[in-house]
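Q: Please design a sequence for this.
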Protein backbone atom coordinates (compact mmCIF):
# COMPACT_ATOMS: atom_id res chain seq x y z
CA UNK A 1 0.00 0.00 0.00
CA UNK A 2 2.78 2.42 0.89
CA UNK A 3 4.46 1.91 -2.47
CA UNK A 4 1.22 2.43 -4.40
CA UNK A 5 0.29 5.55 -2.41
CA UNK A 6 3.78 7.03 -2.88
CA UNK A 7 3.71 6.21 -6.60
CA UNK A 8 0.40 8.05 -7.02
CA UNK A 9 1.40 11.00 -4.82
CA UNK A 10 4.66 11.39 -6.77
CA UNK A 11 3.04 11.44 -10.23
CA UNK A 12 2.80 15.28 -10.28
CA UNK A 13 6.55 15.49 -9.57
CA UNK A 14 7.45 12.93 -12.23
CA UNK A 15 5.26 14.81 -14.71
CA UNK A 16 7.12 18.04 -13.89
CA UNK A 17 3.98 19.78 -12.60
CA UNK A 18 5.36 20.59 -9.13
CA UNK A 19 8.55 20.08 -7.16
CA UNK A 20 6.77 19.07 -3.95
CA UNK A 21 3.72 16.79 -3.69
CA UNK A 22 2.09 19.14 -1.16
CA UNK A 23 1.83 21.73 -3.92
CA UNK A 24 -0.40 19.63 -6.19
CA UNK A 25 -3.91 20.18 -4.88
CA UNK A 26 -5.38 16.94 -6.24
CA UNK A 27 -2.70 14.79 -4.63
CA UNK A 28 -3.64 12.63 -1.63
CA UNK A 29 -0.66 13.86 0.33
CA UNK A 30 -1.64 17.50 -0.28
CA UNK A 31 -5.16 16.70 0.91
CA UNK A 32 -3.69 15.16 4.07
CA UNK A 33 -1.53 18.24 4.70
CA UNK A 34 -4.63 20.38 4.18
CA UNK A 35 -6.36 18.47 6.97
CA UNK A 36 -8.65 16.00 5.22
CA UNK A 37 -9.08 13.44 7.98
CA UNK A 38 -10.18 10.56 5.72
CA UNK A 39 -6.99 10.86 3.67
CA UNK A 40 -4.85 11.10 6.78
CA UNK A 41 -6.40 7.92 8.16
CA UNK A 42 -5.80 6.17 4.83
CA UNK A 43 -2.12 7.09 4.82
CA UNK A 44 -1.74 6.06 8.46
CA UNK A 45 -3.04 2.54 7.69
CA UNK A 46 0.36 1.63 6.26
CA UNK A 47 2.58 3.65 8.61
CA UNK A 48 3.61 2.77 12.13
CA UNK A 49 2.47 5.96 13.91
CA UNK A 50 -1.26 6.21 14.47
CA UNK A 51 -1.03 9.98 14.88
CA UNK A 52 -0.76 12.41 11.95
CA UNK A 53 1.77 14.62 13.74
CA UNK A 54 4.20 11.66 13.53
CA UNK A 55 2.89 9.89 10.43
CA UNK A 56 2.87 13.04 8.26
CA UNK A 57 6.61 13.71 8.56
CA UNK A 58 7.40 9.99 8.13
CA UNK A 59 5.37 9.82 4.92
CA UNK A 60 6.87 13.08 3.63
CA UNK A 61 10.37 11.69 4.09
CA UNK A 62 9.37 8.49 2.28
CA UNK A 63 7.95 10.50 -0.62
CA UNK A 64 11.08 12.58 -1.01
CA UNK A 65 13.44 9.62 -0.84
CA UNK A 66 11.39 7.78 -3.48
CA UNK A 67 11.14 10.92 -5.63
CA UNK A 68 14.89 10.82 -6.20
CA UNK A 69 14.42 8.06 -8.79
CA UNK A 70 12.67 8.98 -12.03
CA UNK A 71 12.50 5.49 -13.49
CA UNK A 72 12.33 6.63 -17.12
CA UNK A 73 14.47 9.27 -18.82
CA UNK A 74 11.46 11.45 -19.65
CA UNK A 75 10.26 11.61 -16.04
CA UNK A 76 11.32 14.21 -13.50
CA UNK A 77 13.07 13.44 -10.22
CA UNK A 78 13.91 15.70 -7.31
CA UNK A 79 17.50 16.71 -6.85
CA UNK A 80 19.59 15.56 -3.92
CA UNK A 81 19.53 18.97 -2.22
CA UNK A 82 15.72 19.06 -2.05
CA UNK A 83 15.64 15.52 -0.69
CA UNK A 84 18.37 16.25 1.85
CA UNK A 85 16.53 19.36 3.06
CA UNK A 86 13.38 17.33 3.81
CA UNK A 87 15.36 14.56 5.52
CA UNK A 88 17.30 17.12 7.61
CA UNK A 89 13.99 18.66 8.71
CA UNK A 90 12.72 15.23 9.77
CA UNK A 91 9.92 15.51 7.23
CA UNK A 92 8.37 18.40 9.16
CA UNK A 93 6.72 21.20 7.22
CA UNK A 94 7.21 24.77 8.38
CA UNK A 95 4.16 26.71 9.54
CA UNK A 96 4.21 28.93 6.41
CA UNK A 97 4.26 25.81 4.19
CA UNK A 98 1.29 24.27 6.01
CA UNK A 99 -0.65 27.54 5.93
CA UNK A 100 -0.04 28.00 2.20
CA UNK A 101 -1.45 24.52 1.51
CA UNK A 102 -4.47 25.13 3.73
CA UNK A 103 -5.17 28.67 2.52
CA UNK A 104 -5.87 27.50 -1.01
CA UNK A 105 -9.02 25.91 0.39
CA UNK A 106 -10.25 29.38 1.30
CA UNK A 107 -10.94 30.04 -2.36
CA UNK A 108 -13.62 27.35 -2.09
CA UNK A 109 -15.41 29.68 0.31
CA UNK A 110 -16.10 32.38 -2.30
CA UNK A 111 -16.17 35.08 0.39
CA UNK A 112 -13.94 35.26 3.43
CA UNK A 113 -14.13 37.80 6.24
CA UNK A 114 -16.19 38.93 9.19
CA UNK A 115 -19.69 37.55 9.76
CA UNK A 116 -21.28 40.83 8.63
CA UNK A 117 -19.18 40.96 5.46
CA UNK A 118 -19.98 37.37 4.48
CA UNK A 119 -23.68 37.88 5.21
CA UNK A 120 -23.69 41.01 3.02
CA UNK A 121 -22.16 39.05 0.12
CA UNK A 122 -24.81 36.36 0.55
CA UNK A 123 -27.55 39.00 0.53
CA UNK A 124 -26.13 40.53 -2.65
CA UNK A 125 -26.01 37.16 -4.43
CA UNK A 126 -29.03 35.59 -2.75
CA UNK A 127 -30.30 33.99 -5.96
CA UNK A 128 -27.25 31.70 -6.00
CA UNK A 129 -28.15 30.08 -2.66
CA UNK A 130 -30.95 27.76 -1.59
CA UNK A 131 -34.19 29.22 -0.24
CA UNK A 132 -33.81 27.44 3.12
CA UNK A 133 -30.51 29.11 3.89
CA UNK A 134 -30.96 31.99 6.35
CA UNK A 135 -27.36 33.24 6.72
CA UNK A 136 -24.24 33.24 4.62
CA UNK A 137 -21.55 33.05 7.27
CA UNK A 138 -20.04 29.66 8.09
CA UNK A 139 -17.27 29.21 10.64
CA UNK A 140 -13.97 27.99 9.28
CA UNK A 141 -12.85 24.84 11.04
CA UNK A 142 -15.11 22.60 13.03
CA UNK A 143 -13.35 22.18 16.36
CA UNK A 144 -10.69 24.83 15.89
CA UNK A 145 -12.63 27.74 14.43
CA UNK A 146 -10.71 30.95 13.91
CA UNK A 147 -12.51 33.62 15.95
CA UNK A 148 -14.06 36.31 13.79
CA UNK A 149 -13.25 34.64 10.44
CA UNK A 150 -16.07 33.23 8.32
CA UNK A 151 -16.58 31.85 4.80
CA UNK A 152 -19.71 31.77 2.69
CA UNK A 153 -19.45 28.00 2.24
CA UNK A 154 -18.66 25.16 4.59
CA UNK A 155 -15.07 24.33 3.68
CA UNK A 156 -15.58 20.56 3.83
CA UNK A 157 -14.26 19.81 7.30
CA UNK A 158 -11.62 21.02 9.66
CA UNK A 159 -8.57 22.37 7.83
CA UNK A 160 -6.87 23.64 10.97
CA UNK A 161 -5.86 20.58 12.96
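A: Design:
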Amino acid sequence: MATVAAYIDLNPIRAGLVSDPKDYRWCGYAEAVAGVEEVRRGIMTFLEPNDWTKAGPEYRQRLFVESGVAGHSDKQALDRDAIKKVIDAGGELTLPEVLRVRVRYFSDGVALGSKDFVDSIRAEFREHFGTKRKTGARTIGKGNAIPGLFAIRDLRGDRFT
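Q: Thanks. Anything notable?
A: Residues 110-151 form one domain. DSSP finds seven helices and three strands in the chain.
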